[in-house]
Each structure stands twice: as structure tokens, then as C-alpha cells.
Design a protein that fits this description.
This protein is of the alpha+beta class. It has a domain at 29-259: q2cbj1_9rhob like domain (Jelly Rolls, Sandwich). Helix content is 32%, strand content 16%. The strands form 3 sheets. Strands 3, 4, 5, 6, 8, 11 and 13 form a 7-stranded antiparallel β-sheet that branches. Strands 7-12-9-10 form a 4-stranded antiparallel β-sheet. Helix 10 runs antiparallel to helix 11. The longest helix is centred in the C-terminal third of the chain and has 24 residues, at 308-331.
């Protein structure tokens, strides 16, 4: 029986394309973490979301400014691991026509240090307090521990305007931001629908046009080991192009709302088109796990006096996401 208040464990095996590091540091929370609080947070209301939209979200939290996450020892260890993974990056061109050019999803398969960092209870509790909702490491390994590197072609944005396919994520600078020219991280001060309408895009696909400068905020990183939290499925954001070739590494750990029966905005339908090894089995595990939690909750809620129509409606709502995902899998050729 799964504990639906804890993240779904990683699979017992991993795709052959992901090469595990032979040597790496051992993650020690007391040594590698230096968790601090953000000094500023923006809510979904601040960004223009209507109450009717916010009611479907797990939290009113939008995004924070950058706060310290890693100690100096943590930065050194994280840099070592991310640099070691560089030669085992993903092969595809990203999740959309103009998106990531150099990245490693599923980095938790490659590195035990990264997996333990993303699985850290201390980190999850810290982020939960900031977001105002219980969070845990995302159950889809491809996005649970991700790394973005600078693209070889610096005329390309590091990552173009988009929203994420997951509820919450952290963007943490691993390399020294003071050494970079360009490569800033920016958010759109509006709703995802406004951003998509202005760019003529659809969410995760990415857009390369410019948004009105008056409605764009840049999030500064004071140093390596600092990151910010965002409700990524609702924050329109990008990482700008570099103006000079440089090493730029960011870690993107993703999180989902717990317990597992709570509302979830993970876009498994979109993610099923990704080329990552094993992605559809990972997504199936996610949807089956969360459906199991909803079914267990429904089992406890059913009354012997419930009318058939009420029971049928409750069952359909409980398994609707799982059924939709199964339909999408059947359509893949």
C-alpha cells in the first residue's frame, strides 16, 4: 500500500540511455543545504488570475524571488555532478519547436546525489511552506530532476516563453550568474492565457516573439546555489539568450501537490509526445498512482444510500484523467 502523502518512489530500473555516474558525492542535507526564505512572493491574483481560475489551483502562490538553497559545499558538489552529466545529455531538440537546446531530463536516473537532493524532506517542507500547500518530488522521473545547459548556438534563447507541464518547480542557478552576459530569467506579469494570446502560442510550445517590456520582470540570482519557486503551470516565463558564450547551468527540480488525491495540473497528455526514454511508462505510473489515491478516497466516501447516478458520476470523475491518458496512449503511433 502506497503512502499517498509521500512521493511515488523512483522505478527500480532505468532506461539504458541514461548512464549512471560511476563516482559522485553523497548528498548530505546538513552539509549541502542552506535553506533561506524568499523576501518577495507574487500571487496568482497579483498576476491577474480570476477567482474562478484560482479555485481550480492548489494554491494562490505564483512565484517568489530567488532565495538561497545550497551551501558553498552544496554548490561545489552540484556543479561536479551537473558537469559530469553533460556528456550524457538528451538527444532530442526539446519539447517544442523553439525550446530547449541543451538539457538533461531524468537526471535523477544518472545521479544518486541529484535524486537524493530532489527527494529531500527538508527541501520539500521548505518549499511547501513557501507555496502554502504540501509538495513532494514529482513522480515523473523525467521532470523530477532536470538540468538546463547553455545551447551551443547562443543566438537561441536558453528557453523561450512558455508555461510548464508540472504544478511547481524550482529554477536554481548552479553556475555563477555574475560571470554571465545575458541569460536572464524573466516572467510575464500576467496570466498564461494573456501571454499565449500575445505570442500566438499554446502553453508549453514556446514562443520567440517579444512580450511588452513593461509587463516583463527579471528575477536576479544573487549567486550560485540560489533559486526561486514558481507554480510553473501558471507562470509564463523564459530564459533569455546569452550575449557571450559561457557556461550556464540551471537545475530544475519539479514538484507535485500531495496527498496524491489532490488536484493535479501535470500535463501528461502533452508530455506523452516527448522523446525521453521511458516517458510514457513514467506518465502511466503517475496517472495510475494518483487515480489509486482518488479511488481510495472515494472508497471511504461511498454511502450505502448513494443513488446509482451519483455513484456513476463519482466514479467517472475519479478515473477521468486516467481514461484520457489511456486514450492518448492508444493514439500514439
Amino acid at each position: 500500500m502506497h503512502n499517498f502523502h509521500r512521493p511515488l518512489p523512483f522505478p527500480n530500473h532505468h532506461p539504458e540511455a541514461y548512464l549512471s555516474l560511476a563516482r559522485e558525492p553523497v548528498f548530505e542535507p546538513g552539509k549541502h543545504l542552506a535553506l533561506e526564505q524568499p523576501t518577495q512572493c507574487r500571487s496568482l491574483t497579483d498576476l491577474g488570475y480570476a477567482n474562478s481560475e484560482i479555485q481550480t489551483c492548489a494554491s494562490t502562490f505564483g512565484y517568489s524571488n530567488a532565495f538561497r538553497i545550497l551551501s558553498s559545499e552544496g554548490v561545489a558538489a552540484m556543479t561536479e555532478v551537473c558537469e559530469a552529466i553533460y556528456d550524457n545529455r538528451n538527444d532530442s531538440l526539446g519539447t517544442g519547436a523553439n525550446r530547449l537546446g541543451s538539457y538533461a531530463r531524468g537526471a535523477g536516473y544518472r545521479s544518486r546525489f541529484l535524486r537524493d537532493f530532489c527527494d529531500s524532506v527538508d527541501l520539500a517542507e521548505h518549499l511547501s511552506a513557501i507555496a502554502g500547500v504540501e509538495l513532494g518530488r514529482h513522480s515523473v522521473p523525467a521532470v523530477a530532476c532536470g538540468i538546463n545547459y547553455a545551447p551551443d548556438d547562443i543566438t537561441r534563447a536558453v528557453d523561450s516563453w512558455h508555461v510548464d507541464s508540472v504544478n511547481f518547480d524550482v529554477v536554481m542557478m548552479v553556475t555563477d550568474p555574475a560571470a554571465l552576459k545575458g541569460g536572464e530569467f524573466q516572467v510575464f506579469e500576467g496570466t498564461r492565457r494573456e501571454g499565449e494570446a500575445l505570442l500566438g502560442t499554446s502553453g508549453e510550445a514556446g514562443g520567440t516573439l517579444q512580450l511588452p517590456a513593461s509587463r516583463v520582470s527579471t528575477i536576479p540570482f544573487p549567486a550560485a546555489g540560489y533559486g526561486f519557486l514558481q507554480q510553473g503551470s501558471h507562470i509564463f516565463h523564459r530564459a533569455c539568450r546569452l550575449l557571450e558564450k559561457a557556461k550556464r547551468i540551471t537545475l530544475i527540480p519539479s514538484f507535485e501537490v500531495l496527498p496524491a488525491h489532490d488536484p493535479d495540473t501535470t500535463n501528461t497528455i502533452n508530455m506523452s509526445d516527448w522523446s525521453d526514454p521511458g516517458i510514457n511508462a513514467e506518465l502511466a505510473r503517475h496517472e495510475v498512482w494518483r487515480a489509486s489515491a482518488r479511488l481510495e478516497q472515494l472508497l471511504d466516501a461511498i454511502q450505502l444510500t448513494d443513488e446509482p447516478q451519483v455513484l456513476a458520476a463519482a466514479i467517472r470523475v475519479t478515473v477521468d484523467r486516467l481514461t484520457q491518458f489511456a486514450d492518448k496512449l492508444e493514439a500514439i503511433r
